[in-house]
Design goal:
alpha+beta; 3 helices; about 35% helix; elongated
Length: about 70
């Protein structure tokens, strides 16, 4: 798949089977663990920060540069 338009407009977060937030369908280098904090009893505000971190980590896989 090589679709710069799709990547530039993607707003989805995904959860892996290992319970990590995956900001990009095609990347595995920007995952954010969510299950450990849940099990440790993190507050809703702390969990919200993890989701915001994942959103901040989002970078288009296809950004017009060659990989």
């Amino acid at each position: 798949m090589d679709n710069t338009q799709f990547c530039q407009n993607c707003t989805r977060l995904r959860i892996t089977p290992e319970s990590k937030i995956k900001p990009c369908l095609l990347r595995n280098n920007n995952l954010v663990d969510i299950i450990k904090p849940i099990r440790l009893g993190y507050s809703d505000d702390d969990l919200k920060k993890l989701f915001l971190e994942a959103i901040k980590n989002r970078k288009p896989y296809y950004d017009g540069c060659s990989h």
